[in-house]
Design a protein that fits this description.
Catalytic activity: N(6)-[(R)-lipoyl]-L-lysyl-[glycine-cleavage complex H protein] + glycine + H(+) = N(6)-[(R)-S(8)-aminomethyldihydrolipoyl]-L-lysyl-[glycine-cleavage complex H protein] + CO2
CATH superfamily of the largest domain: Type I PLP-dependent aspartate aminotransferase-like (Major domain)
Pfam families: Aminotran_5 (PF00266), GcvP2_C (PF21478)
GO biological process, one term: glycine decarboxylation via glycine cleavage system
CATH topology of the largest domain: Aspartate Aminotransferase, domain 2
Largest sheet: 7 strands, mixed
Distance between the termini: 15 Å
Order of helices and strands: EEHHHHHEHEHEHEHEHEHEEEHEHEEHHH
Structural class: alpha/beta
Strand order of the largest sheet: 3-9-8-7-6-4-5
Helix content: 25-40%
Number of helices: 16
Enzyme class: oxidoreductase
Number of domains: 2
CATH class of the largest domain: Alpha Beta
EC number: 1.4.4.2
Shape: globular
Number of strands: 14
CATH architecture of the largest domain: 3-Layer(aba) Sandwich
Length: 518
């Protein structure tokens, strides 16, 4: 681990010697070994009494040998995980330009509200009569989700976007089977510009997926959709705005053609944060759409466990919503959990109703912004992306022409071709500048794609520094400063990996290296 090599590095026109330290630390950039390297299996930081005599009940399956876990003291444990956390990039440390992922700021107000005892301390198995406030919050959140989307029902149980896709498509499948068309409608249409999980979800449910190619302008042709529709088509899965960062301008025509053909329109709502408060998917003809609460309503990605991906449903699909769901009757608000009370329900997707912590955070975000604030968040996200687009379009190429985008801007690698560099090289050089790279090589409809989403969280000063950094890197690439890119990252905790070798020959188990001779 220790390395005392001396190497020459260049910064601009000046060269300097960089000395590798004895500890491999560089000031406050601390090197940290694996926990197996720094721990000691024969000790532990906690004193545990020997258990009283007992009779094992594992049927001879109990462990015979020592478990071999590394033991650390409390200070060592704390330092280990703090040092690891300092090697991670986060939205709290800098701009996170991941296109399609919407890495936006998570307001601390939301975190404080989610930690209130009445929300943080409840348990999914306690009686419904003891959590009326939680049920009312879920009902209010569901109401505003339906209001924002113009839809008739919402399923709150899905735990994430892909889980929401499964829910929406299962509702479509249940509706088709209820009409006696389950054996004939087996095709799902998925545009090339859709999110990658869309075709996977359809295939997982037993549908055959047929792709719809993108037009030269990056959008879906309504006439092509109508040509592909027929009595064997169950649904179309369309992302809007799509993964090229473009609004599907013929979405109303696509929805009408789909409905006329007896099929259903599933809209991937991962990018709803670009149109929130501006247009309602229900008014466009959508039948089902999932909502990533982490993208649009600023809950953490994953939330330290399950996330939340509610699915809004049209009146055609509302009867097929999964249980449990909320119902208000003469006895007040309650969860409907028995399927005999919901004869058309597609069943359960999860054991419990949903992720309460994410619901509280999303609801707090809504209340603190209000209708005008939510609309402005969408407008600012689109403005930020177009500011980056306009500031870089003289140096970096766009696959679908220099045209306004939505909340994310897509570049390709055509401008890099004369330099001999790749999208990956450019992305690795961004790490040395202190930025997490943008999403690369996705969407697949753009060669060497670079998808940038700044979100509404960033100030103009933050965007200006990012743009200036991107311009400096682009001009360095055009000047032929290839070493700056091929050797990157230099300043990251680890240098560039052989990703192909790592994928083909992964090392999944740590083994202690032999002792080094003194």
């Amino acid at each position: 681990m220790l390395n005392r090599q001396i190497r020459a590095t260049t910064a601009g026109d000046s060269a300097r010697l960089e000395v590798e330290t004895f500890t491999s630390n560089r000031g406050l950039a601390l090197e940290e070994g694996l926990i197996f390297e720094i721990g000691r299996a024969e000790v532990t930081g906690v004193d545990l009494d020997e258990p009283a005599p007992f009779e094992p009940r594992l049927g001879g399956l109990e462990r015979k040998d020592p478990i071999g876990l590394p033991g650390l003291s409390e200070p060592e444990t704390l330092r280990h995980y703090v040092r690891l956390s300092q090697k991670n990039y986060s939205i709290d440390s800098g701009l996170y330009p991941l296109g399609s992922c919407t890495m936006k700021h998570n307001p601390r107000l939301n975190e404080a509200v989610a930690r209130l005892p009445g929300f943080a301390d409840i348990h999914p198995l306690q009686p419904q009569s003891t959590v009326p406030g939680a049920l009312e919050l879920i009902e209010d959140l569901a109401h505003w989700l339906m209001t924002l989307t113009g839809m008739d029902a919402v399923a709150m149980t899905p735990k994430a976007g892909a889980h929401g896709e499964v829910c929406g498509m299962m509702a479509i499948k249940a509706a088709i089977e209820a009409k006696g068309e389950g054996e004939t409608r087996r095709i799902v249409l998925a545009p090339d510009s859709a999110h990658g999980t869309n075709p996977a979800t359809a295939a997982r449910l037993g549908f055959e997926v047929r792709s719809i190619p993108a037009r030269a302008d990056g959008t879906v042709d309504a006439a092509e959709v109508e040509r592909l529709l027929g009595p064997d088509v169950a649904a179309i899965m369309l992302t809007n705005p799509n993964t090229c960062g473009l609004f599907e301008k013929e979405i109303v025509e696509i929805a009408a053609a789909t409905r006329n053909a007896g099929a259903y329109f599933y809209c991937d709502g991962a990018n709803f944060n670009a149109i929130m408060g501006k247009t309602r998917p229900g008014d466009l003809g959508v039948d089902a759409m999932h909502l990533n609460l982490h993208k649009t309503f600023s809950t953490p990605h994953g939330g330290g466990g399950p996330g939340a991906g509610p699915v809004v449903l049209s009146g055609r699909l509302a009867p097929f919503a999964p249980a449990p769901f909320l119902r208000r009757d003469e006895n007040g608000l309650r969860l409907v959990e028995r399927l005999d009370e919901a004869p058309y329900s597609l069943g359960r997707l999860a054991a419990f109703h949903g992720q309460m912590g994410m619901f509280v955070r999303a609801y707090a975000y809504m209340l603190s912004h209000g209708a005008d604030g939510l609309r402005q968040a969408a407008e600012d996200a689109v403005l930020s992306a177009n500011y980056i687009r306009a500031s870089l379009n003289d140096l970096m190429s766009q696959p679908f022409g220099d045209r306004p985008c939505m909340h994310e801007v897509l570049f390709d690698d055509a401008w890099l071709k004369p330099t001999g560099l790749t999208t990956l090289d450019f992305a690795k050089a961004m790490i040395d500048e202190g930025y997490h790279p943008m999403t690369i090589y996705f969407p697949l409809v753009a060669h060497g794609a670079m998808l940038i989403e700044p979100t509404e969280s960033e100030s103009k000063a933050s965007l200006d520094l990012f743009i200036a950094t991107m311009r400096d890197l682009a001009m360095a690439a055009r000047r032929g400063e290839t070493e700056r890119f091929l050797g990157a990252p230099v300043y990251a905790p680890r240098r560039r990996l052989d990703e192909t070798r790592a994928a083909r020959n992964p090392v999944l188990k740590w083994t202690r290296p032999p002792p080094q001779p003194v």
